[in-house]
Amino acid sequence: MPVLYATHPLFLDHDTGNGHPERPARLRAVEQGIEAAGLREALVPVVPVPASPEDLARIHPPAYTQALDDFCRHGGGYLDGDTHVGRESWDAAALAAGAGLEVIRRLDRGEGAVGFCAVRPPGHHAVASRSMGFCLVNNVAVAAAFLADRGERVAIVDYDAHHGNGTQDLFWTDPRVFYVSLHEWPAYPGTGRIHDVGAGEGRGSTLNLPFPAATTGDVFRRSIDEVVVPALSAWAPTWLLVSAGFDAHRRDPLTDLGLTSADFADLTRDLVALVPSGRRLLFLEGGYDLEALAHSVGAVLSVLVDDGAYRPEGPSADGPGAAVIDSALNIRARLADG
Ligand SMILES: [Zn+2]
User: Fold this and answer.
1) Residue from 66, 49, 34 nearest 306 by CA
2) How many A from CA of 337 to the centre of ligand 1?
3) Are strands 206-211 and 177-184 parallel, antiparallel or unpaired?
4) CB 291 within 8 A of CB 253
5) Has this prediction a pTM greater than 0.90?
6) Distance 336 CA to ligand 1 centre (A)
7) pLDDT in tens, 22-66
8) What share of the chain has pLDDT > 90, as a percent?
9) CB-CB contact of 115 with 5 (8 Å)
10) Strands 280-284 and 114-117, bridge-based pairing
């Protein structure tokens, strides 16, 4: 079954200002990764359409999206210390969120096994009424809310090096969406403690795995196999969304984790097995070293297309972080006991 691939030239027009790590060249690196992996012919291109106001309103109040639209149309500027927008940024953000919904429509029609959205701006830090951390609209949350509203049980697994505070916050009490994050700790944005498990009806459907600097892929993989897969299998998701950030790569300039492109491919292979074909969608989040990003996207797409023929690096091992797995298992066991 084919892999659906959504991107658009408008994503290059989102202007974050000179010297910003979240830059248009990132999407050119993604394209280079596809070429290097020899996957161009294997991907089915999807032309995204902007998310409708109704689709956005499941996550973001109209007053927020309208203010953001107005701010961009008047030329933009800084929304916070590290989040900058230009004139085209609102249109890019609405299109990035819409890309996920368009891929879901195509997957629903049986046109593919899995989708990948190569979009910017990224989304997982955006909360309901505030942009932050390079994110304006929470793309993965817009897709999750769309699916949950039609009765799906949605697992979101976020392997970006930063905790997806926005996604966690949006579904903190929502039993229809299970949010899992593997991230560096301590690091921006300072959320995602191991004891944070959701609240109310959503208690137990948030799972945080905060890893120390230099953690390697073997520990990430063990945590998926020993903690994440058992927890999600018991919860029985009907859809899987992945916040696929690649800034946990050992070359990334913003973080200090120790993964390689092969690790991202292996993690992705383990995760997509959780749900049936046609019910899986990945969103690009972070990843700020261009070569690492190209390698990582190439290796991940290769796993989805041809079981990983393209593997420019080997997996990483022997870093710290194993204690996090034991702590997480203890917390899950206590939750299971009520
Ligand atoms: Zn990140």
Assistant:
1) 34
2) 34
3) parallel
4) no
5) yes
6) 31
7) 999 999 999 999 999 999 999 999 999 999 999 999 999 999 999
8) 97
9) yes
10) parallel
Give the position of tokens 């993964």: 259
* DSSP sequence for 158-184: E-SSS--HHHHHHTTT-TTEEEEEEEE
Active-site residue, selected from the candidate residues 60, 84, 125, 249: 125
Quick check: helix, strand or coil at residue 17?
A: coil
Task: Kindly report, residue by residue over 231-264, the tens digit of the pLDDT.
Answer: 999 999 999 999 999 999 999 999 999 999 999 9
Sign of the Cα torsion 50, 170, 209, 336 reads negative
125 carries an active-site annotation: yes
CA of 125 to the centre of ligand 1 (A): 9
Assigned token pair, 303: 């796993």
For residues 121 and 14, is the Cβ–Cβ distance under 8 A? yes
Quick one: pLDDT at residue 288? 98
Query: CB within 8 A of 196, min separation 6: which ones?
Result: 168, 206, 208
Q: How far is the CA of 161 from the centre of ligand 1 (A)?
A: 5
